Amino acid sequence: MSVKLLQPVGQKRLTNVAVVRLKKHGMRFEIACYKNKVLSWRSGVEKDLDEVLQSHTVYSNVSKGVLAKNSDLVKAFGHDDHTKICLEILEKGELQVAGKERDSQLSSQFRDIATIVMQKTINPETQRPYTISMVERLMHEIHFAVDPHSSSKKQALDVIRELQKHFPIKRSPMRLRLAVIGQKFPNLLEKLNAWDANVVSKDESGSHQSVICEMDPGFFRDCDALVRNLQGRMEILAVSVHFEGDTHVDDFDDYEDVPPALPKESADSEVQLSEKIQKQTISEEKKADTLAKQNKCSTCNAFVGDAKQFRDHFKSDWHKHNLKRKTKQLPPLTAEECLADMDLNDSKADLKEYSF
């Protein structure tokens, strides 16, 4: 008795795929895509649809290989054109990623958030930014978890507020130029003092007086509203200011004879810089020695100038004469000695030729 093996109809099993899912009219539709291609398509990097879709087919369940019914497609999308439906699902659907891909995306976004935090914060003691590795370590210490559905910038601002509760860290100040009419200038300075802003320079000449200041970005909106009420102008000179040296020459007018004390980190950086310069000097000396050795003729035991002169030296009679002496294990001669020796040999040859 023969046994008939029944195969399921309408199933195409796919493995190692990225699934994009879309729910519409209470029904679920899925498409099978190549891994790491969906995001490239949505960002506009990938233009070829065949490089994204593994098949122009709409499924109700990709993992089980169950195809979507045409009646369901017409009911949900109004037509049963699989290619057009695949494009709509590819654009609006939710991407289902595997564990390793998800970990890779979260790790990349964690790094992006740490980079934004590093750019927007400074160490209040040294007025310098933290390193990226230190920022990541601090983020791990506060047990920060990345939200893949939220923007990196928004999460970075949340991280900064959370880090300020536990560690000495603050927002790097913004540098602004504020200009108002002379009568309202004292009101502006009073408000800047209340915001603990650092006044870099002032210009009190003319009808409109201006000030360049550095303030916490958290007061930017209030400062903008104040300048508008005072009918003034505001210009953003730098979004993030880090300590790079003297901000203004007037800050050190009273301390000409006393050099400012450097923070420990700055002193360390100067030591590293001096070591780097010393290593560079040694390397340059070695390079000069190497260059000198390259332009030295070992046969004649003499230094020759540039590369062209060095090549011409090998064609000279002096080098050829010393080369003959070298084969006889005789010491090399200088150019003058060589010339005299060659004249002596020529004279001996002439005497030998005319001798009877």
Secondary structure elements and their pairing?
Layout: E1 18-24, E2 27-33, H1 38-42, E3 59-61, E4 66-67, H2 70-77, H3 82-92, E5 94-96, H4 99-120, E6 121-122, H5 132-141, H6 152-163, E7 170-171, E8 174-181, H7 185-194, E9 198-203, E10 208-215, H8 220-229, E11 233-238, H9 264-294, E12 296-297, E13 302-303, H10 307-314, H11 317-327, H12 335-354
Antiparallel strand pairs: 1-2, 1-5, 3-4, 6-7, 8-10, 8-11, 9-10, 12-13
GO cellular component, one term: cytoplasm
Subunit structure: Associates with the 60S ribosomal subunit.
Protein name: U1-type domain-containing protein
Describe, in short, the structure shown:
The chain has 356 residues and is an alpha+beta fold.
* Total number of strands: 13
Report strand %. Answer: 15-25%
Structural class: alpha+beta
The tally of helices reads 12
The assigned CATH architecture of the largest domain is 2-Layer Sandwich
CATH domain class name of the largest domain: Alpha Beta
Terminus-to-terminus distance: 127 Å
In the sheet with the most strands, the strands line up as 9-10-8-11
Main β-sheet description? 4 strands, antiparallel
- From the 3D structure, determine the CATH topology of the largest domain: Hypothetical 12.0 Kda Protein In Nam8-gar1 Intergenic Region, Chain: A
Q: For this structure, what is the CATH homologous superfamily of the largest domain?
A: Ribosome maturation protein SBDS, N-terminal domain
Poorly predicted runs of 5 or more residues? 244-267
What level of helicity do the residues show? Answer: 40-55%
| Alpha carbon gyration radius | 39 Å
Number of domains: 4
Q: Residue-averaged pLDDT, rounded?
A: 76
Shape, principal axes of CA atoms: flat
Order of helices and strands: EEHEEHHEHEHHEEHEEHEHEEHHH
